[in-house]
Amino acid sequence: TSMMLMGKVFSSSSSSEILSFPRKSLVSSQSVHEWSQKYRGWHHHASHIIEPNPMIPDFEAIQMTDVPTVYQLPGDDLFYMSFIGFDGDGYQTFVAESSDLLHWGNIRLAMGYGDEGTFDHGGVVLGAYLYESYDVDAPRILK
Question: For the whole model, what pTM was predicted?
């Protein structure tokens, strides 16, 4: 068994052997330090942006949230965040709006439970977007 990671081939002698990677063979601490320099100085907010149980009208049973994804629409100054909510039975996708990335409102259902026999009967989640650019410095604007 072998695999390529960051331009290097790692191999094992049998398919049941677990490949292990020495830390120094992946990315050096210096490289991480240099790459992350421009992302330092941000402020940590102790509270959740979207609470685990956000008390969305008509969806009060939501008890856990996950996978927040922030994006913008072309020509729109608002930010949007999709996230999934779990109500004890299944998952549904919601969307919220913000003008400052700190205060989120207008939370509403984006994809919920479909009728019996339909693809989304047990709940669905929205998990991937097509952005104009995937560059780490680019704004997350949908295509």
Answer: 0.67
Measured between alpha carbons, how far apart are the two ends of the chain, in Å? 39
Q: Is 110 within 8 Å of 85 (Cβ atoms)?
A: no
pLDDT in tens, the chain (143 residues): 566 666 667 666 665 566 565 655 577 778 878 888 887 777 777 788 888 888 899 999 999 999 899 999 999 999 999 999 999 888 899 999 999 988 999 999 988 888 888 877 777 777 677 888 888 888 888 88
Q: Are 96 and 81 in contact (CB under 8 A)?
A: yes
C-alpha R_g of the chain: 20
